[in-house]
Amino acid sequence: MPESDAEGDFLEGVYTTDIGLTWLASQWEVLEEFYRKYVQSHSDEGPAVVWLKIAESSVDEFDRSKAVQLGQDVQRLLRSPLTDEMIRTVWLAATHGVFDPGEYGMSAGAWLQKAEEAWLARVRQNDPAFVPPPPRPVVDEEFRRAVLQVIRPVAEQLSLAVENPPFGTPVTGLVPALERVVTESCADLGYRLFLRAMKAYHVPADRPGLVALGERFDYPEWVVPEGLNDRTVTPWHRGGWTDTSPPAPVVRPGSGAHVTPRYLSRGPATGRLAPGSGMAVCPLSQA
What's the pTM? Predict the structure, then answer.
């Protein structure tokens, strides 16, 4: 492998903190960057269009092998027996209740189809003959059991967090929906959706155990640990005082602050601080 390619692979591994549909969901934390780029010149278009632009951007964010994950994840859900409400539930929790397709007249399935179409159109700008690979869901029973085993110990705490959020649309029935994704759609996607919810709501997590399972799925190094509220970490010291919160997550170069811009909210600021940013978060869906 040429040295330049090896360096690129290394850097992508370092800065890859999620993949596929869960990467798309994670972008609720950095919406400001996309609004600065897009909404100021398209002021007549709203949040749903911006999310589609984010879906398109995944083509430039990753190499081809990782970029195709978005389409595969969408098809894993759409081809499963999951109800539309279950799909909405896991998506909504993954975005901390910030983007609910129903608020913009779309079912969850319709939103996923639009996201996939936006992604595919962008791929075909570079490769008109591109054919999406099959979804290849992980249906191995051992993997399914392993994911269910890490969800159940935190089920009550996670449910309380998503049902009583400091901002965003409350989510009910998340744990049963996640379990159905794992057992009826894909263990890999179900695990990543679980991790995304745990991170979004800052629920204390067993980092070593979750990282070990991520290694079994062969995830890039930072997909599991980045953003986790690691309950195994003891309080650390910063500037002479004790801080019980975890260090700020890894931020990709040029990603912008982890904050939803104040001018996009429909209500006053909650005062919640984005990790390491010193800025208050005001999500789109705040009433």
Answer: 0.77
Q: What are phi and psi of 120, to 5 degrees?
A: -65, -40
- Dihedral, CA of residue 141, residue 146, residue 152 and residue 157, to nearest 10: -130
Residue type, 268: P
pLDDT digits (tens, 9 = 90+) for 195-239: 999 999 999 999 999 999 999 999 999 999 999 999 887 554 444
CB proximity list for 77: less than 8 A, separation 6 or greater: 21, 87, 109, 112, 181, 185, 189
pLDDT in the model for residue 287: 36
Distance CA 258, CA 168 (A): 16
Q: What angle do CA 53, 180, 110 make, to 5 degrees?
A: 30
Contact 284, 265 (CB under 8 A): yes
Angle between helices 108-126 and 47-61 (to 10 degrees): 40
Residue 256, both tokens: 């912008």
44: pLDDT strictly greater than 70: no
CA 170, CA 48: separation in Å to the nearest integer? 19
Cα–Cα distance for residue pair 135/253, rounded to 1 Å: 30
| Backbone dihedral region for residue 19 (phi beyond 0: left; psi -120 to 50: alpha; all else: beta) | beta
